[in-house]
Design brief:
The protein is of the alpha+beta class. The protein folds into 3 domains: 211 residues, no CATH class; 87 residues, no CATH class; 147 residues, Heat Shock Protein 90, CATH 3.30.565. The protein has a 5-stranded antiparallel β-sheet with strand order 4-3-7-6-5. The chain has a 5-stranded mixed β-sheet with strand order 9-11-12-14-13. A two-stranded antiparallel sheet has the order 1-2. Helix 1 runs antiparallel to helix 2, helix 3 runs antiparallel to helix 4 and helix 4 runs parallel beside helix 7. It is rod-shaped, with a radius of gyration of 52 Å. It binds adenosine-5'-triphosphate and magnesium ion (MG). The site of magnesium ion has 5 residues, from helix 6.
Length: 464
């Protein structure tokens, strides 16, 4: 696939390119301006030093004729003062005598205002061929006559020409540098963002089914994202395959009942009633229970913030169980006054506790007790009965789907499986044990995490 030269709007590549342009632009502008200023200062200093030396040399070479007219011993050491209009000029003045000028100054004159003090001063002044940097000072004449005024000057254009030449050179270099930086920047841009292209291809491969997961070997910044994505893919895959199995299980579990129902319906159609009504009823209950089981399993995904409050949630279960097992005169009681909030949906809590209490009601001789207490970040709800109990070796197998340890009491062997499945779903569990007091009976213990804010150490904890 060919990559467009101009990156798409809103893309990381475009951001990168813009940031790089701004970075290179500001950097080079700064380097350009500061280097030029530094160079100008340096060249100006050099010019000034040179002119001062020439001025001193001029004063040293000045002699006087018998009529007081100043003359030079010999020309200044720099030949540019001899070349016409070279931009390098000198001038010596004495009141009452003609002005002595350098051979280079064919017209005009230097401004003598600068040469009336003993110390050397300088100024940008008008000169014979344009603005000049002019230096001047005055010295008493050795013959006791009137003062001598020395002036020396260089055209500003000479200084400017040196600086402009340097600026042009600098500009060429900076342009070359910018091109180089832009080129390497483009390579850096492509190189650093290449894993994103690979990421896109990898996601596309998963999307169109060419790959099941994202491959390994990513930069440190992308690796966690890929790990999360793979985790998500795994979870999805597990959910889909679980849903498939569940759908299969549901169909399978209903098929037997459906076959029996069909059979009974055919019997009825033939006019032979028999005990079909009881069979139909039994099969309908079986189907209902199977649906309970599968619905409980289908409720996947804990909703954030789900809470069930005790003792409110226990009361309706106790009342329903009292009614359900009224024929056997079982006494249900609750023992627990602690206000507790559990991290579970109220419907799921009712489903679990109803199953445990229903079992206790079916097997108890006379009494069933429900109590609860908080232990650390969990609450433990115990359902205790005074029935025959389950031998320790068989307690684990009682949780198996369809597992029925004793056929004397009606049931489908799903209650404990449903309860445990739901409890685990919320990070809790269900376990069976004998009674603490050693008497006959079974204790079904439900462990569930406390709702946020209920846990010790968290603000708002109002547990015991
Ligand atoms: N409190 C108890 N005392 C004695 N045995 C029990 C008790 N609770 C459960 N069991 C045994 O464990 C088996 C499994 O219980 P479970 O609740 O899973 O199924 P069920 O009660 O038989 O049927 P269902 O709950 O689906 O109507 C029961 O058949 C029973 O043999
Ligand atoms: Mg049961």
């Amino acid at each position: 696939m060919t990559r467009p030269i101009i990156p798409a709007q809103g893309s990381l590549r475009l951001r990168f390119a813009v940031a790089m342009l701004a970075w290179i632009g500001t950097g080079l502008l700064f380097i350009g301006v500061s280097t030029s200023a530094l160079f100008r200062k340096h060249v100006e200093n050099q010019f000034h030093d040179e002119l001062k030396v020439h001025l001193v040399e001029l004063a040293e070479l000045t002699r006087f004729a018998a009529d007081g007219q100043p003359t030079l011993d010999r020309p200044l050491s720099d030949p540019r003062y001899e070349m016409p209009d070279s931009g390098y000029y000198w001038q010596v003045e004495r009141e009452g005598a003609p002005v002595l000028k350098s051979a280079s100054m064919r017209r005009g004159a230097l401004d003598p205002a600068l040469a009336h003090q003993p110390e050397i001063v300088h100024r940008l002044a008008r000169g014979p061929t344009g603005p000049t940097m002019t230096y001047g000072f005055a010295r008493p004449a050795p013959d006791g006559g009137s003062e001598l005024h020395f002036l020396i000057a260089t055209d500003e254009r000479i200084l400017n020409a040196v600086i402009s030449a340097f600026d042009r050179e600098l500009q060429r270099w900076l342009t070359l540098l910018a091109a180089g930086l832009l080129g390497t920047g483009a390579i850096v841009n492509i190189y650093t963002l290449r894993p994103l292209d690979r990421l896109r291809q990898s996601v596309a491969a998963v999307h169109n089914g060419a790959a099941r997961r994202m491959e390994d070997g990513w930069p440190a910044e992308i690796a966690p994202l890929v790990a999360d994505l793979n985790g998500l893919l795994d979870t999805n895959e597990a959910m889909v395959s679980r849903a498939r199995v569940e759908a299969g299980n549901l169909a399978h579990s209903l098929r037997t009942s459906l076959a029996i129902l069909t059979d009974e319906a055919e019997t009825l159609a033939k006019g032979e009633a028999g005990d079909s009504a009881a069979t139909l009823l039994e099969q309908c209950r079986r189907i209902e229970r199977q649906l309970d089981w599968h619905l409980a399993r289908a409720r996947a995904g804990v909703r954030q913030g789900a809470t069930t409050r005790l003792p409110e949630a226990i009361q309706p279960i106790e009342t329903a169980m009292q009614r359900l097992h009224a024929e056997r005169h079982i006494q249900f009681s609750t023992d627990g006054t602690d206000m507790v909030a559990l991290a579970i949906e109220p419907e799921d809590f009712a489903e679990i506790v109803s199953n445990l209490t229903d079992n206790a009601g079916k097997w108890a001789r006379s009494r069933v007790g429900i109590d609860w207490r908080v232990a650390g970040a969990e609450a433990m709800i115990s359902v205790t009965d005074d029935g025959p109990g389950i031998p320790a070796s068989m307690r684990t197998s009682a949780f198996g789907v369809g597992s029925r340890l004793d056929e004397r009491s009606p049931g489908h062997g799903l209650g404990l499986a449903i309860a445990q499945d739901l409890a685990r779903h919320y990070g809790g569990d269900v376990a069976l044990s004998g009674r603490d007091d050693g008497a006959d009976g079974l204790v079904a213990r439900l462990m569930l995490p406390l709702a946020r804010g209920q846990q010790p150490g968290i603000e708002g904890f109002d547990g015991p």
